[in-house]
């Protein structure tokens, strides 16, 4: 049985990166920590293991970022998933900085599903939303 759920990817860039993000063009990512909100209603485990893997075809906007990140942690919302767009709103409300309009949210009305982490907001966001860390690449 495939598990369904939503998730947050926590990615750290040790250096600045300029990445071609398809229709969004080339975007500049300053070094630091980023969080991406997503959903996997067709298989949470498969999606999260794919996101942390370095062995994959580039398919989504987020793939380009995970490929250059020095670490990737997957935090899941399961068994009662918080809706993807609600997680994005919670991330922003916790103090994460929205970056790059249109990133990862072509199928909804959100501004973005990618956020830059500042200060200690990530720990508070993960605790408040009850997310569990399940996959990682260091």
Average of per-residue pLDDT values: 94
Radius of gyration: 14 Å
Question: Structural class, please?
Answer: alpha+beta
Please report the total strand number as a whole number: 8
The helix content is: 25-40%
Summarize the helices and strands and which ones pair or pack.
Layout: E1 5-13, E2 17-20, E3 26-29, E4 32-40, H1 44-52, H2 61-68, E5 71-77, H3 84-93, E6 97-98, E7 114-116, H4 121-129, E8 132-137
Antiparallel strand pairs: 1-4, 1-5, 2-3, 4-7, 5-8, 6-7
Describe the structure.
There is one protein chain. With 138 residues, the protein is α+β, with helices and mostly antiparallel strands. The chain has one domain (5-137). 26% of the residues lie in helices and 32% in strands. The strands form 2 sheets. Strands 6-7-4-1-5-8 form a 6-stranded antiparallel beta sheet. It has a two-stranded antiparallel ribbon with strand order 2-3. Strand 2 (17-20) and strand 3 (26-29) form a beta hairpin. The longest helix is centred in the middle third of the chain and has 10 residues, at 84-93. The radius of gyration is 14 Å and the shape is globular. The mean pLDDT is 94.
């Amino acid at each position: 049985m495939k598990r369904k759920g939503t998730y947050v990817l926590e990615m750290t860039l040790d250096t600045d990166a300029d990445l071609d993000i398809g229709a969004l063009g080339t975007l500049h990512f300053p070094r630091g920590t980023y969080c991406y909100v997503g959903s996997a209603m067709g298989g949470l485990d498969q999606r999260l293991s794919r996101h942390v893997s370095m062995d994959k075809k580039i398919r989504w906007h987020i793939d380009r970022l995970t490929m250059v990140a020095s670490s990737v942690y997957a935090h899941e919302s399961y068994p009662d998933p918080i809706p993807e767009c609600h997680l994005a709103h919670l991330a922003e409300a916790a103090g994460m900085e929205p970056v790059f309009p249109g990133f990862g949210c072509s199928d909804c009305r959100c501004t973005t599903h990618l956020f830059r982490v500042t200060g200690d907001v990530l720990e508070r966001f993960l605790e408040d939303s009850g997310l569990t860390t399940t996959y990682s690449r260091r």
